[in-house]
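lol ok so funny story. i was supposed to be doing the assay writeup but got distracted and ended up predicting the structure for this chain instead. priorities right. anyway since i did it might as well share w the group, maybe its usefull for someone
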Amino acid sequence: MTYEELVDNVKKATKKAKVSKTVGHVAFQFNVEGEAEGAFYLEISDGKINVEPYEYYDRDIIIVTSAEVIMKMIRGEIQPRVALSNGQLRVYGDMEQLGVLPFGGR
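and the output, tada:
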């Protein structure tokens, strides 16, 4: 899988997702290691989700993981907190925000 394909998959997955307007604003930067390496961001603002293939300098949280783990979260095969606890992803910033990710099989 390429970086572009990964970002496209995340965009498609989040189009179907519903996010409460009470979330307010939160920005996640994903730093992908290995296959499909690169950075992209997922921003939630007032119930809308935006995914773009850029770094987000005013982010609330950085998630470092592989494309494989991101795809597992999209498919609902693993929850972000489970991936964190078993070492499949690293988080820098406000870990409580993992609960508002619009995928991950909560």
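The longest helix spans residues 3-15. The chain has three helices and five strands.
back to the writeup now i swear
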